[in-house]
Amino acid sequence: MTAYHCRRAVLPGGVESDVLVESVDGLVTDVAIGIACPAGVTPLGGLTFPGFANAHSHAFHRALRGRTQGARGSFWTWREQMYAVAERLDPDTYYSLARAVYAEMVLAGYSCVGEFHYLHHGPGGHPYADPNAMSHALTAAAADAGIRLTLLDTCYLTGGIGAPLTAVQQRFGDGDGHSWAMRVDAFRPSGTHTRVGVAIHSVRAVPAAEIPVVAGWAAEAGAPLHVHVSEQRAENDACRLAYDRSPAQLLADAGALTARTTAVHAVHIDAADIALLGRHSVTGCACPSTERDLADGLAPVTDLRAAGGRTCLGTDAHVSIDPFAEMRGLEYGERLRTERRGNLTSAELLDAATDFGHAALGWPGAGRIAVGAPADLTAVSLAGIRFAGVTAGNELDAAIFGATAADVTDVVIGGRHVVRDGRHTGMGDVTGALRQAIAAVATS
Ligand SMILES: [Zn+2]
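That is the input. Now the predicted structure with zinc ion docked in place:
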């Protein structure tokens, strides 16, 4: 049994004081309110949140931070820079990079990550001796960083609708949906920290006829199905030209929209798309920092929620890794789009970053400090100058709109104290590990 005592904790019913959280085998067995810290129990100061879920990650994009943000151009010119990094990765360098990136996430308060993984094969598309070598590298990286992982094995077959894969994209492809499914079937991750889900990269990269293969795999496994949807207008234009319908409609017609589906970005969706996604109880995954960085546009988040959908959050290309920035970014984006304030409450923003994100990644019940949930806790110090004057009545708003990843002091994942006083207990110097891993693959 492990136990932590939270001075203040965000529980499903609101913020409470002196909360004792006990767990056995990584699951919470008791939450007691108003208890003084017993001797021998680890105290967590500040405000303790449930662990955050990062529902959309491409770990290797972290190597681009600072190398593309100042550039002009478009999503498509940025993609060329991203591909240049992808070209350089192998299972060893990817393991080192992902381990350090996942550790940065843990330090920021994330306890779970969904890796949208399409870098499957060696240069030229040649499979490694183990065709899932890259998946194993990511699984090992997550285990060593101490974070839960949902590996979203991504089907990526074409370089555009009706277009062959380009030279660098060969590494992403399995030839056809059947071969993709056979490779995924052969992947057996070790450890309890990993779950497997699947993804359709986009309607650009998976032909309509192959979409049911991926959707069918997810349905049979009861697994999450993620897909990039309408991040850029050019995708909608190409989809309408080829199929005479929107990406959302194409996915619906192919049976890919269910309550297990997460539509990543869903920026350029119209009223019919919103109704469709809402009717199927799809979760939209907003990535506010990345969508701003790539000039994607603003997703109609509250419209989707009103239609029956949910929202979760991801750091995607990792221009920053900060759950607080993503939460307030969601609300601020809505303010700019609608010219109205107060679109999502702090509790709703927290749902997006915690329980809705975990559910989208196939960890239902996680993301709450409650009996039966995984014992995942993120403690945030409110002692710094930014929080001077904050009171118990407004600490939650102050944290969501004012905290940063640097204010996270302690992170508990599955009952393990993975971050203690701002330091990763298993890895120590994460900054050095990141610096080294990025230097090995960066192009400038
Ligand atoms: Zn993405």
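The radius of gyration is 21 Å.
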